[in-house]
Amino acid sequence: MAGYFAQVTLLAASGNGADNQVNGFAFEEVGSPNDTDMDTYTVAVKDFYDDVLTINGCAGLMTNGHIVKFYDILGTSPNYPIYETTFNMASAPPAIDMPLEVALAVSYKNTVANTVPRGRRRGRIYISGWAESMNTAGRPISTAFNGLADAYKTFADTVNTIGTFEAGVWSRANGVVYPIQEIFCDNEWDTVRRRGGEATSRYEVSVA
């Protein structure tokens, strides 16, 4: 099995490249993926983010033009993409409500490669842009964290039906992609500072 990595860049509605959000998805396959299979994989990525939209995530993004670049994880430097494409969301994401630094992590792991340290077969991605209605008493409501885990499970299950693809966890240390067996998301927000926008106003006072 060979390992591959899909880098997904979500374009910010602000038009500022610094506000774009980037997530990574790994998979393994027998041989080399063809363009048709990578297009099908991109549809699975699109469907994942569309599912997140339905649970009031992904605020502050463009509707169209999100970028997916595929890489061979063992490619030599410079490791150029083996394929590049784009996708559009099914509907326009809402305006920003809570700060974009506030994110939910969806985590996943391999449970069967027991000879490999656990840290090398665990991964996560962060999803920002949540509506205030998804927060209560400082914690995400179950609609948000259950829905995010379910959306990622649907994504992984779909990937596993594409040719000989298998959704996985990329261990950079080992240079190996391990198949995903479990997915989880909890009721605690994460802070991802690089997801936040730049200040647009500043107030300063002098000391007498």
Summarize the structure in words.
The chain is of the alpha+beta class and 208 residues long. It has one domain (2-195). 18% of the residues lie in helices and 31% in strands. The chain has two helices and twelve strands, in the order ββαββββββαββββ. It has a six-stranded antiparallel sheet with strand order 4-3-1-2-9-10. Strands 5, 6, 11 and 12 form a four-stranded antiparallel sheet that branches. α1 runs antiparallel to α2 (142-159). The radius of gyration is 18 Å and the shape is globular.
Which descriptors would you attach to this protein?
208 residues, alpha+beta, 4-stranded antiparallel beta sheet, 12 strands
Radius of gyration: 18 Å
Largest sheet: 6 strands, antiparallel
Tally of individual helices = 2
Distance between the termini: 69 Å
Number of domains: 1
Round the mean pLDDT to the nearest integer and report it.
94
Unreliable stretches covering 5 or more consecutive residues: none
Helix/sheet category: alpha+beta
Spatial sequence of strands, sheet with the most strands? 4-3-1-2-9-10
Portion in strands: 25-35%
Question: What is the molecular shape?
Answer: globular
Q: Tell how many strands the DSSP assignment holds.
A: 12
N to C succession of SSEs? EEHEEEEEEHEEEE
